[in-house]
Amino acid sequence: MKRIRQAVLLAPLLAMLVPLATHAAQPDDDPNKNERWLDFKAGTFKDRAIDPHSDAVIKLDAPARAADTVVVPIAINAQFPQISAHYIKRVYLFIDENPEPYAGSFDFTPESGLATIETRVRVEDYTFMRVIAETNDGYLYSAVRFVKASDGCSAPADKDDAAEERSAGQVRLQAQGQAVTGSPSLRN
């Protein structure tokens, strides 16, 4: 009887602790307070300012809820043409709650024509996804989106372990339209 009473008394305490232990990022959280992001930001950009209101420079399209967390489609688009006077020279992709949050960077030149990337990424948990665009004049601009996803990084990408190991780290690119030597490829 004493054990039943203890269990009854402990139940409300445990009920309060469970949400704390399973807290995932929420859309109303401050995306600039994530500890992993702050560490990456300090290590990569030092104390350089990042403009958070960058819709005129860079745009990140990502689904609000991922249909398949293993292959979440995203699009990163420069909002102006790449010309020698003003262009995006590098774009960084960071996914806060992934086991390895730094997803990569992409370099561009004025000859790129457009600073546009469409790809698919794995997403581990409810998270902020962010891109940082660095322009040729050294300024930094960000676009941040919240994505609801769960267990994408723990899900197997392929049932054939040997095939998965052979293809690990490979990047597949698909050009659109006819390629012309010495000219950037532009989408219509």
Oligomer: single chain
- Architecture of one domain, CATH level 2? Sandwich
Distance between the termini: 75 Å
SS field, number of helical segments: 3
- What is the strand tally? 8
At the third CATH level, what is the topology name of one domain?
A: Immunoglobulin-like
Structural class call reads: alpha+beta
Low-confidence runs of at least 5 consecutive residues: 7-11, 13-23
- Describe the largest sheet: 5 strands, mixed
Query: Roughly what fraction of the amino acids lie in strands?
Result: 25-35%
Q: In CATH, what is the homologous superfamily of one domain?
A: SoxY domain
What is the 3D shape? globular
Helix content: 10-25%
Mean pLDDT: 80
- Which radius of gyration do the C-alpha atoms yield? 21 Å
Please list the strands of the largest sheet in the order they lie side by side: 1-8-7-4-5
Element string (H = helix, E = strand):
HHEEEEEEEEH
Question: Any idea of the CATH class of one domain?
Answer: Mainly Beta
